């Protein structure tokens, strides 16, 4: 065999006189690469920016060479997103989502030609679903976009671009290159605080005071994504026969799941985005004729007759029954089983149902033993929740539990009475506080 130094590829590499020094690129050239690839706007941040503190370790764990992040925006057509026909709206989401991934891939290709290492995590799916129900995405695109000056978060938890409004999808490219001139957050929030997203949301996930009910949004809008699909599969498994399945699941729901499997998962609402009038390109009709804007854009979404997916006993179930009596609440399971105590504790603020907690003022001390030892304090007061590590304050109820038994209880795989008799779960204090705790987290 010929020596490595005699290989034609090695010879050509040695003879090359013009090689870009790795990790160096002019910022304007980088901007032009992104815009030429199809991005409608772009911003740049360094990996050491404070805004990335909560995801830096994971990014560097996967790509330790990352020095900078490119945030890109691709604009969506707003009229399809506003359509009460969800097929039209979802087609726009899917088409633009594919465009974001294609643009990011084009940027990576152009940077490779420049001798700069880069990678583009997906805009949405595919994700690292093997980590479900924990965090399955590689990069959180929204905080990167805010840090990169591409908008600010509205009360509906969508990034609002100063020009395009919230009719955008986001992507991120990780690069080995230093970022010589970083973007900075814009100095105002395009959100108008008009509360039209509050009025349009069918499950009351967005509160007028800015509160966000994560599980209400997840259960309905993402019904045919991971959690909802898991719940549907369990309905299939639990059905005695075809007739029993048809009693549990309407034919239209079965066909809807088939459509999501065949053509990509479909959002059930996203009405908060549809109703949002913020952004320089979007705001005109709202300012010119607010009543007309409400009638044309928001009212059709409010008046649409449709099933709304809710967890039994949740704030969302009470809300839809009162606010939208013509919509049909469909009681479903959450489909999300927690498999670690860390996940349980971190999920509590997101799953907390503040209206269901009304009147409850209690402090809980948790002590977990066994495979995953931990101590935590949960304080519920004035329809708020606070979770702290360790034992803080005087508890109304002490809960000591084997960690795996507790997780099995939450997943309805273990019987509470069985666990209490065998002292796998022990209570010190009135059991009524445990019942009250459960009402705050229906499943």
Offer a concise description of the structure.
The chain is of the alpha+beta class and 443 residues long. The protein has helices at residues 8-15, 27-37, 56-62, 78-82, 86-113, 141-147, 196-200, 214-221, 226-238, 242-248, 251-263, 271-275, 284-288, 290-303, 315-323, 341-351, 403-410, 416-421, 432-439, and strands at 41-46, 68-75, 118-119, 152-153, 159-160, 168-175, 307-310, 328-331, 362-369, 374-381, 384-389, 397-402, 425-429.
Runs in which pLDDT lies below 50 for 5 or more consecutive residues are: none
**H/I helix tally:** 19
Could you tell me the mean pLDDT?
93
Count of strand segments: 13
How far is the N terminus from the C terminus?
Answer: 66 Å
- CATH architectural category of the largest domain: 3-Layer(aba) Sandwich
Share of helix, binned = 40-55%
Could you say how many structural domains there are in total? 3
Q: Write out the strand line-up for the largest beta sheet, numbering strands in chain order.
A: 11-10-9-12-13
**Category from helices, strands and their pairing:** alpha+beta
Strand content: 15-25%
Radius of gyration: 25 Å
Shape: globular
Q: What fold name stands as the CATH topology of the largest domain?
A: NADH Oxidase
Description:
This protein is of the alpha+beta class and 443 residues long. It has three domains: 158 residues, NADH Oxidase; 136 residues, no CATH class; 99 residues, SCP2 sterol-binding domain (Nonspecific Lipid-transfer Protein, Chain A, 2-Layer Sandwich). Helix 2 crosses helix 5. This is Epoxyqueuosine reductase. Keywords: Iron, Iron-sulfur, Metal-binding, Oxidoreductase. One of its GO terms (molecular function) is metal ion binding. Pfam families: Fer4.
